Amino acid sequence: MPIPALEQLTRKTREEVIKEVSKGAPRWFPWRDIHIDPDKTTVSFAIPEVERTSGGEISYVRDLRIHGMRGIEALEVTLPSPGHKEGQWMILLGENGAGKTTILRAIALALASEKLAVALHARSSEDAPFIRRGNKSSSIEIGLSKGRATATINTSKKTETLQKSFAGMQAGLPIFGYGSQRGSATGGPDRAVSMDRLGGLATLFDSSASLIHAETWLVQLAGVAAEGRKADKDLFEAVKATLAKLLPRGDEIITVERGRAVVRIGKEDVPFAGLSDGYLTTLGWTIDLIARWSHQRRRTAQVNPESFASDMRCIVLVDELDLHLHPRWQCDIVDKLRQAFPSTTFIATTHNPLTLHGTRPGEVYVVRRTDDGALDVLQRDLPAGIRADQILTGDWFGLTTTVDADTQRLLEQHRQLLLAGRDEHDAERRQLEAELRSRLGRFAETSVERLAQGVAAEILDETTPITAKERARVKAVVRERLRTSALRVAKRRSSS
User: Fold this and answer.
1) CATH number of 57-395: 3.40.50.300, 3.90.580.10, 3.20.20.140, 3.20.20.70?
2) What separation in angstroms does the CA of 304 have from each of 18, 142, 236?
3) Are 342 and 309 in contact (CB under 8 A)?
C-alpha cells in the first residue's frame, strides 16, 4: 500500500524507513515487496501479519506436563539441559499410536502465541478433538529455564476452545514444527514464499499444509546478494554453507545458477527437481526453517551472516526426523543438525535405530503403553558401541528378534530340543546348530554359550516380548547360573 511522505507510519518505524531509504536498501521487509520512489518521499510495500518476538536468547525447555489430551491421560517429562554449542535434543521413540505426534503438537500449542495456537487448534480439532474421551478439558504446561507457558482446552456446546497463559516469559517464542507429511523442497506454482507465523507450524497439524517453495526462496536470496551489498552476499554464502553441512557426502555444494537452485554432487550439477527424496525432504524443512527464522529475526534485529546459524535460538519440532534417508545418513543426521544449529532446541520423533547413534546421554525417550493403558515415557541412553539389532531388541524398540521368520522357527525348534533335555551330542541338535551357525555366522560354539542358551530356554519364551525389568531378571538368572557352573567346573578340576 502507498504511504505518502511516510506520514502514516509510527515515528519509530518512520525513522527506520528513512534510515534504510538513505542507504537505498530497506532489508527489514521482504525485499521483493518494496518500492521506493526516486524522490524518497513515498514508500510502497506489503506488510505481512507478523507478531514481534524477542531477538535475544530464548530459554530452553525444562519439563512438560500433559493431561487429558487424546491418547494421553497424564504425562510428565523432564528434559536434559542443552550442552555447550550442542543445542538441546529430545528424541521420542514409540510404536505407532503411542502418542509421539500428540506430544509435539501439545508443545506447539503451549509455546505459540495465543493467536497462533488458537488458529492451529482450530485447523486440526474438527476431525479429531484434542480433549481425551471422557474428560471435560485438557491442559499442557511447559516449563522453561525462564518462565512457564500453559494451554488449556475446554468444551463449550460441543466445541473446543483454547486459552493461553504465560508466566515470567514473553508470549510468542520463535517455534517451528514439521509434520511427517511436510513435503519437500520442490512444488508447483501454488508453493509461494509466504512467511506468516501459522505456516511455520502448519504441517505439524495439517497434512494438506505446505512448506515454502524452497528453491524460489534461495533464488530470491541470491537475487538480493547479486545487488552488491556485502552483508547480503555473506548471508547467502553462510546459508549455502549451513545447508551443505547437512548433506550426506560432505562435499556437496549448493548454489544458484541461471535462476535455479542446484546441488553439485561430485562433478555433476543436479537441479532441485532432480534430487532424491532424501535430499528434497531434508533441504525442504531446513530451508523453510532458516527462511522463517531469518524473516522473523529481521523484525527485531539484524541477521549476522557470520553467526546466523548459532544465533538461531528457537524451538524446532520434527515428526519423523529421518524421512527418506539412507542408513548412512540416518546415522549422521542428528550430529549434522547439532553442528549446523548449535543453539537450537530440537524435539523430534523417529522409528529408526540408526538415528539414535547421534544422540548423547539424556536425549532418548521411549514412549510406551503400560498394561493398564496409561502412557509412560522412559529415558533410555544408548551404551557406547551398541549395534542396530541390539537397539531393536532392547528397551528402545522391544522387538523379540530381528531375524527372518524361517530362522526364528529354527531357533524355537532348537529351544524345544534344549527343554527336552537333548544334550550337545544329539544328532538332531548338532545338525540344527550347524544350520543356525551357517545362517547367523556364530551359534552355540562354546560350552559357555551352550549353557547360556540352555538356561535362557528354561526361563524365557522367545515368542513373547519382555519388559526392561523382565530382561534384567533374565540376565541376572543367566549370570548366576553361569557363575555357579564355572565354580563347579573349577572345583572338579582342582580335585582331580
Assistant:
1) 3.40.50.300
2) 22, 30, 11
3) yes
The amino acid at residue 441 is G
Cell of 467: 519388559
Per-residue pLDDT of the chain (496 residues; tens, 9 = 90+): 333 333 344 444 544 544 444 444 333 333 333 344 444 444 443 333 333 334 444 568 999 999 999 989 889 999 888 877 788 999 999 998 888 999 999 999 999 999 999 999 888 766 688 999 888 899 999 999 889 999 999 987 778 989 999 998 877 788 999 998 887 766 554 455 567 788 889 999 988 888 888 888 888 889 888 887 888 889 999 999 999 999 998 888 888 888 888 898 888 888 888 888 888 889 989 999 999 998 888 776 678 888 888 889 999 999 999 988 999 999 999 999 999 999 999 999 999 999 999 999 999 999 988 877 778 888 999 988 888 888 888 888 887 777 888 888 888 888 888 888 888 888 998 898 888 888 888 776 666 666 666 666 666 655 455 566 666 776 677 677 667 766 776 777 677 6
Q: How far is CA 281 from CA 88, 192, 324, in A?
A: 22, 17, 7
Residue type for position 110:
A
